[in-house]
Amino acid sequence: MWIERALCQGAELCCEHAAAVFATDDEYVAYVKADVGADCAHKALLVPGEHEEQVRRAEAECPSRCINIID
């Protein structure tokens, strides 16, 4: 999973659906929180199993389609 930050419109729906995984910066651009068990040196991050449903809902409802999930 990753967020294409250049596409983010700052709707913050990802934060509403999966607050344990997503946050926004001072400009309301979404990012994946580092403490979800990810190696921040890589662009694509693994979604912890307990958050998968919320992350998929956030992806489906993101108006800018900036959340990318690879199965």
From TrEMBL:
Pfam families: Fer4_15. It comes from the Bacteria. This is Ferredoxin.
